[in-house]
Amino acid sequence: MGCLVSKKKPDENKKIDIRVVNVDEAHKKIPDDVSDIIEKYPMPPIKDYDSSDRFTLQHKFFRYIWQSNFSSPIEEKLLSPDFKVLDVGCGPGTWILEMANEYPNASFTGIDHRTLFKAEPPSNVTIEYNDLLTTLPFDDNSFDFVFMRFLAYEITEERFEKNVIPELVRVLKPNGYLEVMDINIQGGNEGPVAQEFTSAVQSFYNSKGINSNITQKIKKFMNSTNIVDVQVLEQFHPIGSWDEKIGEVALKDWILRLNHIKINVQKILGINEERYKYSLKSFEEEVDIFQTYWISKRIFGKKKMIDEEN
Ligand SMILES: C[S@@+](CC[C@H](N)C(=O)[O-])C[C@H]1O[C@@H](n2cnc3c(N)ncnc32)[C@H](O)[C@@H]1O
Q1: I need a surface site. Which of 18, 118, 178, 287 has the fewest CB within 10 A?
Q2: How are beta strands 293-303 and 143-149 bridged, if at all?
C-alpha cells in the first residue's frame, strides 16, 4: 500500500454534501512526500482495536497516518545528548515511551494532572504530575522541544490562549520548537447524521467554554508570543471503509469518542439511548456513502532568539 488516501475520484452521480472540503480538494492538500509513503510505521491492527487501550491505538493510528511522531525539524538534534523534550498531557505515555526508545540520547519529561502513566519509565524519561493550568515547575528556557497532543478540547479557549501557550513558550529554549497536534471536530463531507453529531459535540464543548474550532486559532496564538515561522500541516484521512483499511480504525475511534460523551450528546439532541444507538449505526453506514474525512493538524514554530525579540 502506497498512499494514505488514494487518488480515486468520488462517484460523480453521488450527491455529496460538502461542508468543509470536497474529496479532490482534500487530495490536493496531501503533501507529496506523504502521499507516496514508505511505511515507516505500520497500520494499527484493526481487529485488536476494541480490546486495546484507546490512547495506544489512537497513537498508532496517527503515527501511521503521518508516518512520524512529530513534524518539527528536530530529527537530527534529537540524536544529540542534552536535547530536552517536554510532553504536555502525556497520558499513559505511549508517545513519550516510543520517542525515548527511538532517541535514547535525548531526555524526556512528561507532565499530566492524572496518573495514567503506569509503566516503569526508562532512564531518559521523567514523569511529573502537574496541572498545566498553573505555572509549571520548570525554569524559563528549559526545553528544546515542547509537544502537546490531543489536549485542545480539554482546555477553554481563554486558558489556551492566555495561559497554556505562553507557559509552554516560557519553558521553551530560544531556537527550540513548540508543536501542538489535534484533530478537527468537524470532518469533511459529513452526511446528515455526522452533521447532527458534530453540531451536538460543538454545542457541548461551547457550553464549557471550549472552542470546537480551536485548531484554526493555534497559529494566531503562537504568533502572538515569541514563536516565529509557524507552520500548519494537515492530514485528511478517511472514516469508514470507502477508501483505505485505516478508515475502519478511524470509524471505530469516532464511535468510541461518541460513546464517551454519549450522555451529553444525547441530552443536546434530546434523544434516548435506543435512538442514540440507531444514530450511531446510521453514522457508520453514512460515512461510506458520503466519503467522510477526518482532519488532523500539526502546528509548530520556533522560539525567537533573545536578540531577535525587539
Ligand atoms: C486525550 S489525552 C492525550 C494523551 C497524550 N497526549 C496522547 O497523545 O496520547 C489528554 C491528556 O491530557 C491530560 N490533561 C488534561 N488537562 C490537563 C491539565 N490541565 N494539566 C495536565 N494534564 C492535563 C489528561 O489527563 C490526559 O492524559
Answers
A1: 118
A2: unpaired
How far is ligand 1, taken at its centre, from the CA of residue 132, in Å?
9
- Rounded distance between C-alpha atoms, residue 138 and residue 149, angstroms: 20
pLDDT tens readout for residues 48-58? 555 557 788 88
- CA 145-147-148 angle, to 5 degrees, is 160
Q: Whose CA is nearest to atom 4 of ligand 1?
A: 91
Q: What is the pLDDT of residues 111-163, one digit of tens each?
A: 999 988 888 899 999 999 999 999 999 999 999 999 999 999 999 999 999 99
152 CA to centre of ligand 1 in angstroms: 9
Within 6 A (CB) of ligand 1 lie 55, 59, 89-91, 94-95, 112-114, 116, 131-133, 149-151, 154
CA-to-CA distance for 196 and 215, rounded, in angstroms? 20
Tell how far the Cα of 79 is from the centroid of ligand 1, in angstroms. Answer: 26
- Above 70 in pLDDT, residue 219? yes
Domains (ranges, CATH) in the chain? 23-308 (3.40.50.150)
- For 248-258, b/e burial (b = at least 16 CB within 10 A) is bbbbbbbbebb
Kindly give the number of the ligand 1 atom that is closest to the alpha carbon of 94: 9
| Model confidence pLDDT, tens digit, residues 24-78 | 555 544 444 444 556 677 767 666 555 557 788 889 889 999 999 999 999 999 9
Query: 241 exposed, middle or buried (CB, 10 Å; 0-12, 13-18, 19+)?
Result: middle
List, for residues 147-203, the tens digit of each pLDDT value: 999 999 999 999 999 999 999 999 999 999 999 999 999 999 999 999 999 999 999
What's the 154 CA to ligand 1 centre distance in angstroms? 8
Q: Is 2 exposed, middle or buried (0-12, 13-18, 19+ CB in 10 A)?
A: exposed
Give the atom of ligand 1 at the shortest distance from the alpha carbon of 91.
27
